[in-house]
Write a structure and sequence with these properties.
Pfam families: Cu2_monoox_C, Cu2_monooxygen. This is Copper type II ascorbate-dependent monooxygenase C-terminal domain-containing protein. Keywords: Disulfide bond, Glycoprotein, Signal. One of its GO terms (molecular function) is electron transfer activity. By secondary structure, the protein is mainly β. It has three domains: 159 residues, Jelly Rolls (Sandwich), CATH 2.60.120.310; 92 residues, no CATH class; 125 residues, Jelly Rolls (Sandwich). Strands 1, 3, 7, 8, 10, 11, 14, 17 and 20 form a nine-stranded mixed β-sheet that branches. Helix 1 crosses helix 4 and helix 3 packs antiparallel against helix 4. It binds heme C. Heme C (HEC) binds next to helix 3.
Amino acid sequence: MLGWRVTITFAAALPLALLANGCSDDGETSTGGNGTTTTGTTSTDPPGNAPTYYKDVAPILMDNCASCHRAEGIAPFSFLTYEDAKIAAYSIRNTTEQRLMPPFVLDNTGDCNTYSDARWLTDEQIKTIGDWVEAEMPEGDPADGPEIPPPPVGLDRVDVTFDMGVEYTPDASLTDDYRCFIIDPQLANDAYMIASEVIPGDQRVVHHAILYALDDESAEQAAADKDNQDNRPGYPCFGGAGVNARWLVGWAPGGRATTYPEGTGIKLEAGRKAVLQVHYNLSNGPMPDRTRVDLKLAPSVDKEAAVTPLPALNLNLPPGQERAEASFQFTLPAQTPEITIYGVGPHMHTLGKTMDVSAVRGDDETCLARVTNWNFHWQSNSFYTTPIRVRGGDTLKITCGFDTTRRTEPTTWGEGTEDEMCIAFLYMTR
Ligand code: HEC
């Protein structure tokens, strides 16, 4: 479909790039007046210029944390009141300073792009929180405080739902159960997916979910054969659909409704089936689940998009290394028409630490993605604030860094939890 393809013989194994989008908030965080501090005018204000909860800190927490840290959210505790924030103050400071929270694996500093859906605090916001904790968490005047934001909303219209159809109870003998379910959405006409929302049935067990399209009869047959191997719903699979399949939508904790860049969408073919891969983590117990994916469709789009993998397949990592690398580069054939890259979803497994992706044209190198604190549990596919164009002759490069200190054997490419991957999934149009 696109003018180039990386030769991949394991297409079926292509896994997990999660279009997890933001739980938070769009990065356009209000700073709640920090930077324009005035000296205390009310009796509750601290001496000097120390930030207060209501005026300075609450706006940051409401915009960037409250979508998950609320009673019905996925985080283990809520940050909606002064008391909540005060109790957790030190860990709020530490996790924000280390950029562990809000969770976002891509570098959004601007050194290598910014993302329209980044979950990200500015350095100034991090400093405001630090200064507030340093000043022993002054409360300030409630009248200065922001409203508590409403919970995140879903799609404004749902045209088709991909539903597992049955409840599946994960296998209690496993810590992680990776299960694939065949779904027939009964689409009467070809259509383009322009927005999506994955709705996990039970967030206590669902760790990731990915929807794949099956594009031909043989893929559907292969999936059906796997499905018939036991009489429980679905079939086991890790890291992908286990059959030749095309990635459509991914979800990781905190993911919510995503709208694709204006004028773009991913094609769905009439009458074709799909596979929903769900990663169940059993640490909370084997709760039954029925996950679904809602899509908003358009009959046509200006530009058909595809999620195209740039993988370092030659991955072979020696054990016992603090940094073992895998890399790959690919030069677009000269006749390749201009391609617009709208976003990126990095994917590695649990040994992954860093990823650098770039496009090289002559002496110019354009950064496509940088990951410095990879976390397998917070995968996301994010959209650039400004899309990037590449063309024939450009070389796309990817390098991943892994920590193999705890391994005694070499680690190679594969779908297993013990195997590794190094892939950048690029959301692109031609
Ligand atoms: C996308 C959802 C999401 C957002 C947004 C989010 N958190 Fe979290 N947070 C979680 C989850 C889930 C956990 C539980 C631990 C984990 O899974 O990493 C957590 C854990 C934490 C912890 C405890 C960490 C620990 O080591 O015990 C702190 C502190 C925290 N978050 C602070 C924040 C702050 C501050 C913000 C906003 C600046 C924020 N979080 C935004 C989901 C989120």
